[in-house]
């Protein structure tokens, strides 16, 4: 007879499995016990009771483990000091949606604009003739406060992780305040322009990105 948190097997003395119960299926266990008592009498009933207690302990153990799991970390705004450099972007009339604020999808274009503009300014990216280009493979954003046209926003940039051919940028969107109205990240994998296969970061690009760590 075996008992576990996610699944427990109930067996009678004849070795016949009378059922299986998931972690929260105590109702099934009770039904199984009543059925065995009517079918095989008190002796087998007591053996099933013992099996049910094992099952109950298994469920309790599983439930306690679930309750002890650490809650997910809530995203929180960050100050300007958390970022290395900033890029200013003027909002446009078309950025506002029907609710009177900048639509959520616009923030992702700000991420791209800020990072690529900075790399171009530093001479680390040639979008027209460079052999190496960056492709976004992951992106995410959390929102804390509304922004709207005609505000000018500033995008804070930092590098969280620098690999052989990839980089994780973390970005903060600021209005007039000192805390982020939104923050997010995206991951660039740098590839050969023609083959689209990952390549090591060019030396100058790596040097520029290291200043953002």
Quick summary:
This protein is of the alpha+beta class and 213 residues long. The chain has four helices and seven strands, in the order E-E-H-H-E-H-E-E-E-E-H.
Description:
The protein has 2 domains: 7-68, no CATH class; 80-210, Hotdog Thioesterase (Thiol Ester Dehydrase, Chain A), CATH 3.10.129. The strands form 2 sheets. A 5-stranded antiparallel β-sheet has the order 3-5-6-7-4. It has a two-stranded antiparallel sheet with strand order 1-2. Helix 1 (26-40) packs antiparallel against helix 2. It has helices at 26-40, 42-68, 104-121, 203-210, and strands spanning 7-11, 17-22, 85-90, 132-143, 152-162, 166-174, 182-192. The radius of gyration is 29 Å and the shape is globular. The protein is an alpha+beta fold and 213 residues long.
How many domains? The number is: 2
Shape: globular
Q: According to CATH, what is the topology of the largest domain?
A: Thiol Ester Dehydrase, Chain A
Please, how many helices? 4
Strand order of the largest sheet: 3-5-6-7-4
Q: pLDDT under 50 segments (min length 5)?
A: 1-26
Helix-strand category: alpha+beta
Highest-level CATH class of the largest domain: Alpha Beta
Topology as a string of helices (H) and strands (E): EEHHEHEEEEH
């Amino acid at each position: 007879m075996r008992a576990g948190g996610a699944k427990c097997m109930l067996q009678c003395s004849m070795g016949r499995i009378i059922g299986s119960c998931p972690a929260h299926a105590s109702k099934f266990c009770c039904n199984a016990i009543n059925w065995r008592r009517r079918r095989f009498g008190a002796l087998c009933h007591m053996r099933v009771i013992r099996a049910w207690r094992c099952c109950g302990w298994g469920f309790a153990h599983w439930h306690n483990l679930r309750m002890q799991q650490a809650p997910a970390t809530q995203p929180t705004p960050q100050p300007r000091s958390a970022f290395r450099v900033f890029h200013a972007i003027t909002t446009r009339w078309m950025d506002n949606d029907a609710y009177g604020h900048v639509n959520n999808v616009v923030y992702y274009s700000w991420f791209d604009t800020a990072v690529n503009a900075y790399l171009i300014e530093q001479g680390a990216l040639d979008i027209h003739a460079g052999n190496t280009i960056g492709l976004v493979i992951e992106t995410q954003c959390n929102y804390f406060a509304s922004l709207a046209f005609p505000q000018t926003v500033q995008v804070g940039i930092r590098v969280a992780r620098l690999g052989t051919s990839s980089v994780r940028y973390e970005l903060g969107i600021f209005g007039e305040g000192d805390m982020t109205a939104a923050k997010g990240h995206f991951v660039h994998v740098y590839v050969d322009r023609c083959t689209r296969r990952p390549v090591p970061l060019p030396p100058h690009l790596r040097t520029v990105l290291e200043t953002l760590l």
